[in-house]
Every structure is written in structure tokens, then in C-alpha cells.
Design goal:
Blueprint lengths: L6 H5 L5 E4 L1 H15 L5 E6 L6 H9 L3 E4 L2 H9 L7 E3 L6 H9 L4 E4 L2 H13 L4 E8 L21 E2 L3 H10 L3 E7 L9 H20 L6 E3 L19 H11 L7 E6 L1 H4 L3 E12 L4 E5 L8 H5 L5 E3 L6 E7 L8 E9 L6 E4 L20 E4 L5
The structure holds ligand LLP.
Length: 386
């Protein structure tokens, strides 16, 4: 056992694989429940897109969170893990008919609608089933978030949501459609946000919109502010649990809710990010012209975030205590972007050593691909490896 890892167990397993420390996950969830629970109208959903592993979903459901889904597949995964269907929200710009029908059959809590044509189709499909679908409108608040360009979503140029200018028109339209019921507003400005000022900017925008609606005597049942709370990827020691106290209190302080309204959150990364690591074996240590490479059996197919977003994941050699040397850590895929880190200081590396790529619980396993005809990575929880 080095650090928190059961290294001897790891040696018996085929690499690469994801390892989830369920103690970290449970600690994170109890912190969320404690901090959100301070405000009686806060309701937290988990964004299934971050990690749909069945065991992870089951633990999250046991802790009482709802599920935010973006596809029929995610709705099925949430139902299989036991999430009550009245705690499932379905969002996404391109919902197909079968996916809408699935949501209708399950009587889910709400569809987050992103366009007029989508609203019309939901109305039509609900009518065919003799149902009334609960809908929230995803409003594009035109608020920039200080994060990577690929994961900001709240700007006018992004494909997401209905513009603030169109909101009145869409609400008028919903009033004419008998098989939809307008119940909420939905926002999401981006992901891996660590500056609370970005959330304050969103709150201010939501307050403005609420005033406009109030002038029309409309008070929606719920406001959904999306997810986006970031995690600390670069912490040198342990991977800290995000500051949920600060996050929820920011919303409590800045978002003006009417007494009967509830505030919904849909957090992904902040829930599962820190509990997961990708465990990989060193295949070769290769001497380059002026550097040395540690070549792993995991590649960008197993964890694409560094290649796609230049994301940093802390890398540790969990089987060596020898003096530190510097390495470029790379995978075996035939792409020059298949690099996990450059000039990384690691305990001296040998063929067969095991590496942990930390903070990989969110958007890791779920984004794995079979490019180069590779096998998808396995996943184990700490409970399974005792
Ligand atoms: N709600 C909506 C509408 C979203 O689009 C997202 C994430 C979330 C909630 C959850 O956001 P979170 O709390 O996890 O930040 N693959 C990228 C992240 C893409 C996020 C997409 N939307 C990454 O690996 O960084």
C-alpha cells in the first residue's frame, strides 16, 4: 500500500483501469448534503455525463441526489441505478423522438428545452400519449466563464439555450401549447469554474430575468443554475474536496429566490472528480535526444482530457521510492497529442512500474474510446479491492 492505493491488489489486475476511492466519494457527498442542506430550498442533482459508472451512480443515488441526464442512454443508466424518475431532468440541444418518449414514459421531473422546434415536438409527442410534459427553458445568459474555451457554454455564440431576447416569445408560445407546462428556467455557463465571481455574474443575470418575468406575473417553480464548480487538479498532496460551503453560500447570497421557488444545481465534476484515478503500467522507459520518456499502457483513449483540453492531471509513480528524475509521460496511441505530461518529476521509473493519474473521476472513464482498436478501460472501486 503506497499512499491511499492498494498497490499489491493493483499488481494482480490488468492495466489500465480506473480506480474509485468510495470513501472520497462518500465524504464529498456528505459535504454536499451538509452545505446545501443549510438552505431548505436547495436541491442538488448529479450530472450523469461526468461519470455513468453503475457503482458510482448507485452511491450518489443512495445519498439522495437527483440525476441530470443528456441522453436516453443516461436516463436508462440513472433508472437502472435506482434514481426516482421524478428526480430526473433531461437536457440537451438535440433530443430525438425516442429519447423524448422515454422521458415522457418515465414522467421525469422536467425537460430542459433549448429551442422552439424542440418545444413543439415535445408538445406533439406528449399529446400523443395524453400527457403534459413539464418543461424548463434553458436560457443562454451570455455570461462568460473564466475557463477553457471548449467548456464554456453560456455565451451568445455557443449553440446552447434560448437567447434572453427570445425568452418572452418562447413563453408566449408555451402558453398556447396544451401538452407542455412551463415550470422552470435553466442556465449553465461552463465547467471547471473556480472563480466565484462567474457564478455571481450568473446570479445577477438570473435576477434580471426574474424581474422581467415578475412584471408578467410569472413566478416559475424552480431555477436551475446548472453545474460548473471546478476542482483542484494540481494539489501536491491529497486531492481536496471542493469548497461547497463557499459555492452554495454564493448562490444563497446573490440569487434572489421568491419564497415558493426552489434552486436546482446539477454538479458533475465537483461530485466525482477527486475520487477517481487512472492506474497504468509503464511499458518502456525510452531515452530521447535530450529527455527521457515514460511510455504507459494507458493513452488518450483512456483519458482524453490532456489531449483535448491541455488539462493537467497529477501523475505519480506509486511503485518507486527512488530519487526523482524528469520524464515526459506519454501513451501508446499513434497521435502526437497522446501526452499526459511534459517534464514531470517522478520517482525513478522502471518498466512495470504503476502510475496513478489523479483527479480522473470526472470525464475520464466515460469519455474513453476504442480508437486504435483498443479495449475500453476496466473500473474498480476501493470496496471491491479490499
Ligand atoms: N449541466 C449542464 C447543462 C452541462 O452542460 C454540464 C456539463 C453540467 C451540468 C455539469 O458540469 P460540471 O459540474 O461537471 O462542470 N468534458 C469536459 C467537461 C464538459 C462539461 C459539459 N457540460 C471536461 O472534461 O472538462
Amino acid at each position: 500500500m503506497k499512499g491511499t492505493f492498494p498497490v499489491n491488489k493493483f499488481r494482480e489486475l490488468e492495466t489500465p483501469f480506473y480506480y474509485y476511492d468510495v470513501n472520497v466519494l462518500r465524504e464529498t457527498l456528505s459535504c454536499i448534503n451538509k452545505e446545501a442542506g443549510k438552505y431548505n430550498n436547495f436541491c442538488v442533482h448529479y450530472a450523469v455525463k461526468a461519470n455513468a459508472n453503475h457503482k458510482i451512480l448507485t452511491i450518489i443515488r443512495e445519498n439522495g441526489l437527483g440525476a441530470d441526464c443528456v441522453s436516453g442512454g443516461e436516463i436508462r443508466a440513472a433508472v437502472k441505478a435506482g434514481f426516482p424518475t421524478n428526480k430526473i431532468v433531461y437536457a440537451g440541444v438535440g433530443k430525438t423522438d425516442w429519447e423524448i418518449n422515454l422521458g415522457l414514459d418515465y414522467d421525469i421531473f422536467c425537460f430542459n428545452v433549448e429551442s422552439v422546434p424542440e418545444l413543439e415536438i415535445i408538445n406533439e409527442l406528449a399529446a400523443a400519449k395524453g400527457k403534459v410534459a413539464r418543461v424548463a427553458f434553458r436560457i443562454n445568459p451570455n455570461v462568460g466563464a473564466h475557463t477553457h474555451a471548449n467548456i464554456t457554454t453560456g455565451l451568445a455564440e455557443n449553440k446552447f439555450g434560448i437567447s434572453m431576447e427570445d425568452m418572452d416569445r418562447v413563453i408566449d408560445m408555451a402558453e398556447t401549447l396544451p401538452n407542455v407546462k412551463f415550470v422552470g428556467l435553466h442556465f449553465h455557463i461552463g465547467s471547471q469554474i473556480v472563480d466565484m465571481g462567474d457564478f455571481v455574474a450568473l446570479c445577477n443575470r438570473v435576477n434580471e430575468l426574474q424581474e422581467k418575468l415578475y412584471a408578467r406575473q410569472i413566478i416559475v417553480e424552480h431555477i436551475n443554475v446548472g453545474g460548473g464548480l471546478g476542482i483542484d487538479y494540481s494539489h501536491p498532496n491529497r486531492q481536496p474536496i471542493p469548497n461547497f460551503a463557499e459555492y452554495f453560500s454564493t448562490y444563497h447570497k446573490h440569487l434572489k429566490l421568491r419564497p415558493q421557488q426552489t434552486l436546482h444545481f446539477e454538479l458533475g465534476r465537483a461530485v466525482v472528480g477527486q475520487c477517481g484515478s487512472l492506474i497504468s503500467k509503464v511499458i518502456y522507459v525510452k531515452q530521447g535526444t535530450n529527455k527521457q520518456f515514460a511510455i504507459l499502457d494507458a493513452g488518450m483513449t483512456d483519458l482524453i482530457r490532456p489531449a483535448l483540453y491541455q488539462a493537467y492531471h497529477k501523475i505519480e509513480n506509486i511503485t518507486s521510492d527512488e530519487a526523482i528524475e524528469t520524464y515526459d509521460v506519454v501513451g501508446p496511441i499513434c497521435e502526437s497529442s497522446d501526452v499526459f505530461g511534459k517534464a514531470i518529476d517522478l520517482n525513478k521509473v522502471h518498466r512495470g512500474d504503476l502510475f496513478a493519474l489523479r483527479s480522473a473521476g470526472a470525464y475520464g472513464e466515460i469519455m474513453a474510446s476504442a480508437y486504435n482498436c483498443r479495449t475500453l478501460p476496466q473500473a474498480y472501486t476501493s470496496e471491491e479491492l479490499v
